[in-house]
Amino acid sequence: MTQRWLQRFDEKDPIALAKLISAVENRLPGYQELLDALYARTGNAYRIGITGPPGAGKSSLVDRLVPLYRAEAKTVAVLACDPTSPFTGGALLGDRIRMQDLVTNDDGVFIRSMATRGSLGGLAKAAQEVALVLEAFGFDLILFETIGVGQVEIDIAQAADSVVVVLVPQSGDVIQAMKAGLMEIGDIFCINKADQGEADLFYKNLQTMLSLAMRDWIPPIVQTVATAHQGIEKLKEALEKHRIFLGEEGLRARRRERLRVFIKELIEDGLRVRLWDGEGLRDLESQLERVWGKIISPHQAVQELLQKRVR
Amino acid sequence: MTQRWLQRFDEKDPIALAKLISAVENRLPGYQELLDALYARTGNAYRIGITGPPGAGKSSLVDRLVPLYRAEAKTVAVLACDPTSPFTGGALLGDRIRMQDLVTNDDGVFIRSMATRGSLGGLAKAAQEVALVLEAFGFDLILFETIGVGQVEIDIAQAADSVVVVLVPQSGDVIQAMKAGLMEIGDIFCINKADQGEADLFYKNLQTMLSLAMRDWIPPIVQTVATAHQGIEKLKEALEKHRIFLGEEGLRARRRERLRVFIKELIEDGLRVRLWDGEGLRDLESQLERVWGKIISPHQAVQELLQKRVR
């Protein structure tokens, strides 16, 4: 990463932004130093996580929400984290292409899709790092859009200042969402496609379940029909109310906790890199030989290796 | 875990088996020593992985396959690894209950469901550990049944001697399976529900794709209708052919590689435990303080912590 790109980044060149994000996402040489250089300028964007099961209409909601923020002259970055598996959520790419068409002439909107590629754990960390670049660029808002079917996707959405869980009114879906851990992380619940299915019953069931949680903040439920532009203003209002509820102190607590999780992940990643250097791999091979020969058990081999490397 | 349970385990008491598996799955105190004690007796079961997208009929296939092995007096253990998310594959539990009814009077069959609970990474390791207990008990065959939608599920299936990828004849499904990484891991492909959809076209597409892979072993394609007991013998024959293809040497190479992956995972888990002891958590807090205050970047904090702990 040359100094020239950093300079163009400072001059708010969107091409330089895309370039820097790619460097971070692909861990190009020097990406860590780049993040170090930008770090002092981070921390000023409001982060919104939008998650829910495949087909709930998250992309459509984001498409409708962005113009409302743009109308207030706020700059918005959207980070859409695709799930590993193509068996779920195949429509995502199509939606993104549509959306990119919509906003291509507006410098105040930036959209980026991130795929998992490789280990699942990597995506949550990479999303956080890309968000730092977006913050340093100066965006007012960052929207994380993830499909809430796996722990990692939920982690990404959860690392936001406000989390919107999007559901569709289908019987049983509330219980499914609860099992997936979505009920605990939602600050706002959005019933999208509220003109379909058993919307009223669904609303009541969801309300009952949320009232049982005994939290200081009882998550409001907003009904939307994103494709018909219905309820989007209400969703935005709910987000603003949650921000007011959090206040300066609540926001700081959330962000500090997020930073703690991020640093822990960086450490575990760094550990893996350090461990599997030349010496580590040689040790692994010689221990493998002994385990294979049933001289020691896998557990015993591991204890010996750890003893040697960890202080 | 008392000595008495180990003795009953040696006497082939299925209650003792279930007890020991629970101890391993739930990481009860002493479970590592238990695995150490059993380790010398492991390694004699043939492991078959069965994976594929939700709704492909994996459970039905396993239900039909097991009696064929039982007819040859082979003992069979089934390890069904449920996915994290309830949004996919809700039928699994129902199937398992049905199957358990079927075989409850046969000591030569053992069925166990494993859920993820907690971190994703944990399931692959736990499944491997439970398989060691099943091997020590003396099962001839272990069937790993997983929904191939996430990396972890694929990892579990892949840690087998022979891997069956189950698909249904739906247009586009071949490409989806390819994207999910299923095409690379399948030793045998099974088109289940072969009486539905565009079965012939699907067969041809799959065949074309598999022939492009340039492997020594071109995976055979078996067509089944599990619910109607069709093609199950053919699937079993394909599995036997693959075993013969592998031979002693090929099998040994696969198992050694599996052991390497397993030990690596144990090491990374053990590292995490060691790292986040009292001192590690205190160090994390003090570094967090400095990062929060923008004195150092997250990356710099991580480097200092690693320097201190890893040799």
Number of domains of chain A: 3
Query: CATH superfamily name of the largest domain in chain A?
Result: P-loop containing nucleotide triphosphate hydrolases
Return the CATH topology of the largest domain in chain A. Rossmann fold
Sheet/helix structural class of chain A: alpha/beta
> Any low-confidence stretches of chain A, pLDDT <50, length ≥5?
84-98
Instruction: Kindly state the number of beta strands of chain A.
Output: 7
Radius of gyration of chain A: 22 Å
> Percent of residues of chain A in beta strands?
5-15%
Report the CATH C-level class of the largest domain in chain A: Alpha Beta
CATH arch. level architecture of the largest domain in chain A: 3-Layer(aba) Sandwich
What does this structure look like?
The first copy, chain A, is of the alpha/beta class and 311 residues long. Chain A has three domains: 1-41, no CATH class; 43-250, Rossmann fold, CATH 3.40.50.300; 276-309, no CATH class. Chain A has 13 helices and seven strands. Chain A has a seven-stranded parallel beta sheet with strand order 3-2-4-1-5-6-7, sandwiched between helices. In chain A, helix 10 (199-211) links the parallel strand 6 (188-191) and strand 7. In chain A, helix 6 runs parallel beside helix 7 and helix 12 (278-292) packs antiparallel against helix 13 (298-309). Chain A is globular, with a radius of gyration of 22 Å. Chain A starts with a helix and ends with a helix. Mean pLDDT of chain A is 85; it is low at 84-98. At the A-B interface, helix 3, helix 11, helix 12 and helix 13 of A face helix 3, helix 11, helix 12 and helix 13 of B.
